[in-house]
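Let us practice reading a record.
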Amino acid sequence: MKRTPALSILVAPLLLGATGCNASSSITTSSAPHVHEWGDWERDEEGHWRYCLTCGKDEYGEHEGGLCDVCACFRVLALGFLEGGDGAHGDFAKECNDFFPRIGKKEGFLYDFSTDFGLVNEDNLANYDALMFLNNYPYSNEQRQAFQNYMENGGGWIGFHVSAFTTESSSWDWYFNTFLGSGNFRTNTWNPTPELLKAESLTHPALAHVPETFMSSPNEWYGWEKDLRENEDIDILLSLDDSTFPVGDRKGEIWYNESGEDYYPVAWANRNYNMVYMNMGHNLMPYNDFAKTSKTFSKEHMNQFVLDALKAVARRD
């Protein structure tokens, strides 16, 4: 039985026995009766284990690679569509469903995906440390209220790209105007292009391991109705660097910054909630043949930013 871990992570302590993964307990008592005081879970590809800090006894459970509910350090639910909407938006969700399980296995978190926003309810959200909206958001009043309650009670959230898109922000005032703070969609660039991004809030944990500027993967960039710099609740994390203009490459849908005063935030947090929104999530995909020519998760620093943002909203370091 292997006892040298490939990865050591923290989970909430259990008072009695392991659960999940067909875990079996090898607990025995010391010469003096006591309640076991368990150390942190440790894991490798074969199983997970922990030791009593008082008597040194252990409990162990096996699993076939990957992670399980016992040894994962947090759990995230991603929601969005795969088919039926904008092709590039659906393709981004498919890319997430490859990227996050792979990186989750390495980093120690579980990733669940569903197209069903009916899972945004109080009972189900209690099972997750964080939510991700990949390319959509809840539409029913019940789902919207459950999400608001989740966030107001310390839940974690990451939203990508079109999860902030609206031209009728009054339809969900709390989400678009209070929570995101951006209001209505105002403008966009085309075609999707890679751009130089500038880190704005170097104290935020999402930016702990990236340089001051770094290149993004190709993306369709959005501009917003409201100036987020004027909102004291908003902590802007990334913006388009001045040197990267013009942005876009199709006539009529190119952003210029000839005056040097235009400003486009592309990732931010709301200090009143445990959240990060990032505009990335639209690969370069011509709509005549849907031939994908880029990947969002193709840049090392971008990937690190996404991972650190996820850890931050899940309250893990």
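A brief commentary: Residues 1-72 form one domain.
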